[in-house]
Write a structure and sequence with these properties.
Radius of gyration: 26 Å
Number of helices: 13
Family: Belongs to the heat shock protein 70 family.
GO molecular function, one term: ATP binding
Strand order of the largest sheet: 14-22-21-15-16-17-23-27
Keywords: ATP-binding, Nucleotide-binding
Pfam family, one: HSP70
Strand content: 25-35%
CATH class of the domain at 442-571: Mainly Beta
Oligomer: single chain
Helix content: 25-40%
Distance between the termini: 21 Å
């Protein structure tokens, strides 16, 4: 939990494509909450581009030790490949998506680097987080703010649509990266963006007129956080004490900006063939990188209804040489004979693509995001949503903005000036005020497996069992909170567990989640076992013993504590999802 003895709050935005950090001093927050410092100094090398975030890329040596992160890692790896030494290194990029939709997240999990060589996932994530922490600690030291890692409230942003296992995995990686557990808060990305926009003056919100009050009580608005990997969408209402209430559980999927890169890559495969694209990616990553950095610039500038051509600067020499070597023709001839021969032409080192073709690369992703938003707005619980807030790096894309404005013409569409930084800066505000979100809507039903006295009118015969001479029903799902239920932050659920056997040494129970609101048995197909909890009893006895267990829901993470009722002693316990 957050404590109040920190000097400053530092937020780390560990993104699919880009990462960064921001911070603010505790005394400044009280007088000027928007005085948030973002690191200005990620230097991309190639172009004179100083950016507020750095690519989420990690370079390790052959002993799997850290060498570089971000632009440094990208640029050094390109040199390593030129020297043909890539077998002596490990290079990872866009690896955060391994935690999305992954049913088997564990601390033993491995990730494959760009050449398919395995490294422990915990190491890849924790070394990357540590690179951000070290960069931050160095920069505050340079500014003469002598601050100790324990005097900082750390906030790590994560998608709200992630599972409990993915959240715990990130927490453990952050702790391994030297962030003290009691000084770490996980923040949900759409929430922090929403908090950030509460503080913005109207002129910083594009699409807001002077009458617009983000802060009026009862205002209901959708927050669509469109990042590199995921679209993460929720609906908030402003309550009378100025806090936020979630009206719809976070929903979303992997239709972020990188899915458009995927479509661009597939188009290049149709033109040049898979083997050639793979060879460039493996053997000339500098050229490959340049190609996608160029496409990144196109993604930010392309507009709906654009006519004519879109120019992309390409690594001509590399592509042409590979075409001659692998396909026996020069690049120009390969493009001319491809399915896109009439829509793409070459002028020097520029590939000129029909604007319509480029816009079509976005279509599946844009359609996906729009239909997600549409589905949520159909829900009865979110009637009277008047505004849609677009945040996250991908929301800066004009095609997305235009599609949202066109589809939801009757709502006010608002895009903050720094849409790509709203999550990060909001995470700093959340670190100062973790109680900003008053209630959240549960994404699953949570409960434990228990037994009850068998009732033939209610229970299925197949679960009938005898325990210590009593006929009981096994595998009952005892519900704590329901899917789609609005739960106050910090809601406590108390449950007592009693021993069934004499001299029982411990109480073992299993925590389950379900995708349905009212599961009956824990082996229903909607249910998944989340974890087992084994509570050791101090001094077992002949008597029936009771253990009081308290679960806390409604925060960004679930927590648990336990007590032996007899002695009043705390029993050490934790939830372990991975």
């Amino acid at each position: 939990m957050a404590t109040n003895d920190h000097l400053l709050v530092a937020a780390l935005d560990f993104g699919t494509t880009y990462s960064g950090y921001a911070f603010s001093m505790r005394h400044e927050f009280k007088t000027d909450p928007m005085k948030i410092h973002a690191n200005q100094a990620w230097n991309s090398g190639g172009r004179a581009l100083l950016s507020l975030k750095t690519p989420t890329c990690l370079l390790l040596n052959d002993k799997k030790q850290f060498i570089a992160f971000g632009y440094d890692a990208e640029n050094q790896y390109a040199d390593i490949v030129m020297d043909e030494k890539q077998d002596e290194y490990f290079y990872f990029h866009r690896f955060k998506m391994n935690l999305h939709n992954n049913k088997n997240i564990s601390s033993e999990m491995f990730l494959e680097d760009i050449l398919g060589k395995p490294v422990s996932a915990v190491d890849v994530f924790s070394l990357s987080i540590k690179a951000l922490v070290d960069h931050f600690m160095d920069s505050v030291k340079k500014q003469g703010t002598g601050v100790n890692i324990h005097e900082i409230q750390w906030v790590l942003t994560i998608p709200a649509i992630w599972t409990d296992a993915a959240k715990q995995f990130m927490r453990e990686c952050a702790e391994k990266a030297s962030i003290p557990s009691e000084k770490l808060l996980l923040a949900l990305e759409p929430e922090t963006a929403s908090i950030f926009c509460q503080y913005l003056p109207t002129e910083k919100l594009h699409g807001a007129d002077q009458t617009f009050a983000m802060s009026a009580e009862g205002t209901r608005y959708m927050v669509a956080d469109l990042g590199g990997g995921t679209a993460d969408i929720t609906v908030h209402e402003k309550t009378k004490d100025g806090r936020l209430k979630e009206l719809h559980r976070a929903s979303g999927n992997d239709c972020g900006g990188t899915s458009v890169d995927g479509n661009f890559f597939q188009m290049l495969v149709k033109i040049l063939g898979g083997p050639l694209m793979k060879k460039i990616k493996d053997e000339d990553p500098a050229a490959y990188l340049d190609l996608f950095r160029e496409f990144e610039a196109v993604k930010r500038t392309i507009v709906a209804g654009k006519e004519g051509k879109v120019n992309i600067t390409i690594p001509y020499a590399s592509l042409d040489a590979n075409c001659r070597e692998i396909l026996g023709e020069d690049l120009k001839a390969v493009i001319a004979s491809s399915p896109y021969g009439t829509e793409i032409s070459l002028r020097g080192d520029k590939m000129r693509i029909d604007a319509r073709l480029v816009i079509n690369l976005f279509k599946p992703t844009v359609d996906n995001i729009i239909s997600l938003m549409f589905e949520i707005l159909k829900d009865k619980k979110v009637q009277n949503v008047t505004q849609i807030l677009l945040v996250g790096g991908f929301s800066e894309c004009r095609l997305i903005q235009d599609a949202v404005i066109k589809k939801f013409w009757n709502k006010k569409i608002i895009i903050p000036e720094e849409a790509g930084l709203s999550v990060l800066k909001g995470a700093v505000l959340f670190g100062h005020r973790p109680d900003y979100v008053q209630s959240r809507v549960m994404r699953f039903t949570y409960g434990v497996e228990t037994t009850k006295l068998f009732d033939p009118t209610k229970h299925d015969e197949k679960y009938r069992t005898e325990i210590e001479g009593k006929i009981r029903c096994d595998k009952i799902f005892l519900k704590f909170v329901s899917k789609n239920e609005a739960v106050e932050a910090g809601k406590r659920v108390l449950k007592d567990f009693v021993t069934l056997l004499k001299m029982q040494k411990s109480v073992l129970f299993e925590v389950y989640v379900s995708k349905t609101e009212d599961p009956m048995y824990t082996d229903d197909e909607s249910c998944t076992q989340l974890c087992k909890i084994d509570l050791e009893l101090p001094d077992p006895s002949e008597d029936v013993r009771t253990v009081d267990v308290e679960f806390v829901f409604g925060n960004t993470e679930i927590s648990v504590s336990a007590k032996d009722r007899n002695s009043g002693k705390e029993i050490k316990t934790r939830l372990n999802f991975i």
